[in-house]
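The protein record filed here:
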Amino acid sequence: MKLGIVGLPNVGKSTLFNALTKEDAPVANFPFSTTESNVAVAQVPDERLRVLTEMHSAERTVYTTIEFYDMAALVKGASEGSGLGNKFLAQIRESAAIVHVVRCFDDDTIIHVDGAPDPARDIETLNLELIFADIEMLERRLEKTRKALKGDKGLEKELSLLSRMNEWLLEGKPIRSLDQDDDERAFIAAIDLLTSKPVIYAANVSEDEAEAGTDSAYVNDVRKIAEAEGADVVVVAAKLEAELAKLDDEDRQEFFDDLGIKEPGLEKLIRASYHLLDLISFLTAGKPEARAWTIRRGTKAPQAAGKIHSDIERGFIRAETIAYDDLIECGSMAKAREKGLVRAEGKNYEVKDGDVIHFLFNV
C-alpha cells in the first residue's frame, strides 16, 4: 500500500518526504525539481511497542511501516499534458491514497508558481486537474456503456450511476464527496478514479506557526475545504521536521519540548495516513522481539496469522488474545491469565487494533 505525496511546485512535497522518511530527496527553489518519484518507507509510531518491549525485555522492536512516494509536481493544464502532467496523473492512479501538500506560509525567497500562496486556489488547481482527467475517463466509459445497453438492459443501473458521477464532476466536485451506498462504493473503487481516492491535506506551515500552535487563516481555508470533501487535515512544519529528522529520537523530542510542540505534525500525518487506508495493527511480544503487524480492518484471525507465516495460517488452531489496555493494566501476561482476560478466539474472530496475540497452530 502506498501513498502519493502531491502538490503544486515548491509547496514542500520533497521536504515533507525527507522528514517522513529521513531520506535526502532533492529540494530546490524552482518548479519540477522532482522529475521522478522518490520512494521510501516510514515507520508508523506506536507507543504500545515501546511498553511491550520493556515488559518482555524484548531484544528488538519492529514497527509497522507505510510507503510514501514523492511525486512530480502538478501545474494548471496537467490533465492536458502541461508540465509533467501525464507522468504525474499516472503515478497518482497507482497510489492507494493521496497526501496533498498545501503551502500555508509566506516566504518571498521561495517561488510560487502563481505569485503568492492561496490555499483555496492552489487546492482548486490540483483538484480540477484530477477532475478533468476523471471526466475524460468517465465519458469513455459512458459511451461504451450506452452502446452495450442496447443488448443488455441490466446495465441501466450502471449507466445511471456513471451519469450521476459525471454530473458531480462537472460541478467541480471530487467523487470521494459523492454519497455512495456499499454497492456503488465497490463499483467506483473498481474504476480507479483519481478523485475517488481518500485524501489527507498536509497544511505546510512555518516553524513560528507550528510553535504558536494556532491555525492561521491559510490553515482555516484548508480545513473548510477538507470538511466539505470529507477529507482529513494535518498541520506540519515540513522544513523544521526535515531538519530534526536527522537527530536521534531523544534529542528530537527534547527540541519539540523546548518549542512547546506536544506532538510533531509528522507523527500525526503518518498515523493518519495509516488509518486512511483502513489499516490496523495487532501486536506480538516475547523475549526475541515486540512487533506490530499490519492488516486490513476486518481481517479474521487465520489471515492475520498468515501475515507472520503462511504455515501458521494453514495450521491455525486458535488465537490467544488480550486487548493491549487489559494487558498493561494487569502488568504481565501471567497475571492477565489469572484474571481470565486472555481469550481463546477461533477462525471467525475479527482481529482488533491493539490485540496482543499468540497463535497456536499445527505444523
The longest helix spans residues 119-149.
